[in-house]
Amino acid sequence: MSLDDLASASRILADQGVFDAAGHVSMRHPGRAERFLMSRSLAPALVTADDIMEFTLDCEACDARGRTAFIERYLHGGIYRSRPDVMAVAHGHSPSVIPFGLVPTPMRATYHNAAFLAAGVPVFDIRTRFGTTDIVINSAERGAGVAEALGDKSVVLLRAHGFVAVGPSLQAAVFRAVFTEISARVQLQAAALGGPIAALDAEEGRKADAINLATVGRSWELWKKRVTP
Fold first, then answer.
1. % of the chain exceeding 90 in pLDDT
2. Vertex 37, ends 32 and 39: CA angle to 5°?
3. Residue 33 Cα distances to 55, 60, 152, 225, 228, angstroms
4. What is the reported pLDDT for 214?
5. CB 69 within 8 A of CB 55
6. Where are the alpha helices (DSSP H) in 118-164?
7. Which phi and psi (to 5°) does residue 52 adopt?
8. What is the largest CA-CA distance in the chain?
């Protein structure tokens, strides 16, 4: 994956309705596991390769060149530090996902493309550790809190804020972010119909997710073509 791919990932998530004027996606540096790459603070749909910055896991810019970093870069750094298996992180504020961080009803894997959700979707409530805050993940301590709540899962919800999706590749993280949003909408629609929801169980999710990870390139190529001039 290249800087162009990371910029495309940002534009894809905007194009797919996961990001609006906010949201950000990053990837672990392909040659330096102790660093990660992320856009400067910019609306996701506008990101190009020239906007990508390199950071240490302490979230310090290696060569800022006057560019302003996202204040929530600590969310990314905290996850990369605690999860060596994670190669990419996406954080958005999808209005379809946010309700599941506000109520006891768990987010479910409503169909095969959302299979990664079947392992469970924890909720990070910033009040539990930090009390009343501005909600923003703007420090190493808060980033570590998100990473701890995420644990070994693929998605964590942030109460009254949004969600974070991670993956073993940039393509996988984008795929999971997109289908977290879509599955949330499907679950809300199914709930409106009434009765129990026959969502994927953990074993079905494990098997289906393996297939999705092996074929994620198909979705990536389609989505990338949509946002490439």
1. 98
2. 170
3. 11, 15, 19, 29, 28
4. 96
5. yes
6. 126-130, 140-150
7. -75, 130
8. 56
Cα–Cα distance measured from residue 221 to residue 174, given in angstroms and rounded to the nearest whole number = 12
181 in catalytic set: no
Rounded mean pLDDT of 40-53?
97
Collect all residues with Cβ–Cβ distance below 8 Å to 204 and sequence separation of at least 6.
109, 115, 118
Contacts of 138 (CB under 8 A, 6+ apart): 71, 72, 74
Strands 155-158 and 123-124, bridge-based pairing? parallel
Report the distance separating Cα 157 and Cα 155, nearest Å. Answer: 7
Bridge partners for 200 per DSSP = none
Catalytic member of 72, 148, 181, 203 = 72
Please write the tens of the pLDDT for every residue from 162-204. Answer: 999 999 999 999 999 999 999 999 999 999 999 999 999 999 9
Which residue type is seen at 72? Answer: E
What is the distance between the terminal CA atoms of the chain, rounded to a whole angstrom?
Answer: 19
